[in-house]
Amino acid sequence: MNEIYQWIKGRDSEILYDIERLVKKESPTLEKKFADLCREEIQKLFADHLNAQPKIYEDDKFGNHLRYQFGESDSQILITCHYDTVWDQGELSYYVDGNKAFGPGILDMKGGLVIAIWALKALKELDIPLKNKKVVFFCNSDHEGVASPHSRKIIEYEAKKSDVVLVPEASASYTNALKTERKGILRYKIHASGKAAHAGNNPEDGVNAIVELANQVRFLDGLTDYSLGTTVNAGRIKGGTGVNVVADQAELDIDVRVKSMQEANRIKEIIESLKPYNDKATIHIEGGIVRPSMEKTEQTEKLFAIAKNCGSKFGYEVQEASVGGGSDGSFAAALGIPTLDGLGAAGVGPHAKEEHILIDHLSKRVALFANLLSEIDQSWS
């Protein structure tokens, strides 16, 4: 049996205990004081298991970001993950039901963060040194819903120095699948301005901004093309001042997912060239590409093949998947750096109230990650 798996097998409860520590330190993206409490717990985990101290990137809006380094080689492996969650404080609670552990951010992606820490711990405890590459482990807190505006430059800077980038986001659903492709994301806010009027006395004098945006939504929805993997979602619309007033203001939020940067640029040009349907109305468009697509390359396939072989060493069948959710790994992939995603916990329900992980997969995911690190160190050039 594989040496690493032999060491970690049967330690699911220990790994879960560390995950529980982080999950109970709730960390909503926009609540810096809570995020920083979680960040402090992460630092305790690194200190407990790896005797490591971080470089701290102070952030005045989000939780502070952490950079750890293991080794001194000129060649580098980057592990990048986030510790913020979509959940408001107190919205969900941690609990275990059979083989499932539930809680805010447990799948996305505190479980994966702990799995990556334990992978490094396994190599340390087994005295399997990484001789040819150092590991940089970066943890950010400005991911969910805001697309890593402060940490993106750090991630890209580290990625450019790296041979490969590994991302312990959740696996694809209940499968053992790693993620070799992710869709790019565009986000837009469209403001419409019209003219207010009394809805009963003189509606003909008004220009309804809500109607203008309704026409825009009909057109934008038509850009969805499932055969291309392109989806355009009108996620939120608001406007007007009262039911008896012709609305003079309205705004619309649009989310777009695309499989390639070529398609991203095509959709970008269409949306940014929109004109009012009513020539008496005006529209103003804000936004653009917030996450590039993570497109599979020959190097990605090579990296996945190594991971698949690592899993076979202890009977863990690794699959691959293409998904629509966003990841900071996309920043690295867009720079041409081989990137493998989905190395975190197995489970379902990211961003859903039933978010949970499978406990009996934890040791296997640690073994996969640790074997992958060792194999990349030995064979990747």
Automatic annotation (TrEMBL):
<dbReference type="InterPro" id="IPR036264">
    <property type="entry name" value="Bact_exopeptidase_dim_dom"/>
</dbReference>
<protein>
    <submittedName>
        <fullName>M20 family metallopeptidase</fullName>
    </submittedName>
</protein>
<dbReference type="Pfam" id="PF01546">
    <property type="entry name" value="Peptidase_M20"/>
</dbReference>
<dbReference type="Pfam" id="PF07687">
    <property type="entry name" value="M20_dimer"/>
</dbReference>
<dbReference type="InterPro" id="IPR002933">
    <property type="entry name" value="Peptidase_M20"/>
</dbReference>
<keyword id="KW-0378">Hydrolase</keyword>
<dbReference type="InterPro" id="IPR011650">
    <property type="entry name" value="Peptidase_M20_dimer"/>
</dbReference>
<dbReference type="InterPro" id="IPR050072">
    <property type="entry name" value="Peptidase_M20A"/>
</dbReference>
<keyword id="KW-0479">Metal-binding</keyword>
<dbReference type="InterPro" id="IPR017150">
    <property type="entry name" value="Pept_M20_glutamate_carboxypep"/>
</dbReference>
<feature type="domain" description="Peptidase M20 dimerisation">
    <location>
        <begin position="180"/>
        <end position="273"/>
    </location>
</feature>
